[in-house]
Predict the structure.
Amino acid sequence: MMKKNLEKILSFSFLFCIILFSKTFAENGHKVHEHGTSNITIAIENNDLQIQLEAPLIDIAGFEGEPKTKLQKQKLKEASNKLKNWEDIFKLATGSCSKDRVTILGEHKKKQIHNHKNHHKKNEKNIHSDIKILYEFNCAKPNNFKFLEIKLFETFPNIRKINAQWTTASGQGQKALNKKQNKLIIR
Ligand SMILES: [Zn+2]
């Protein structure tokens, strides 16, 4: 009797751990994406500042998967142009940084795993995709680089949350940002 109960408890907590683990996994933005949530990774090394943005394509261009119609192709092009215009994405007020280049790493990388509820109709294909952009800057005074303002929420209103992570020579951190809290203090 005791043994059976113990087994029950053990299997329950194991299941619970899996649920917790997959939730964390989702929150970190790998494998699973959630509409409305993007990820930003910031790294500063010497004079180089790299910012990588990964967003669900639907939040950026209004569709997911490969662009099929003329309108979708047009939307993707417009969205890419908006993303390349980095001053509408970030505001860098400290560190005397200037743009090196903006690279779109993946426009519609396919993603099969997904975790939103009440999302797709039964006969709809379960296609999800992300867009990835790498922004590279050269900062004349990297030690003065203290914060970054995210303007992405205004440029793409479908983005409601950003999970930001950063790494500098002196440390690292992470923060969830939104339209009201759009400033990331690095140090
Ligand atoms: Zn999706």
About this structure: Residues 33, 35, 56, 58, 64, 114, 128 surround zinc ion (CB under 6 Å). The chain has one domain: 2-185. Residues 12-30, 120-124 have pLDDT under 50 and may be disordered. The chain is about 25% helix and 35% strand.
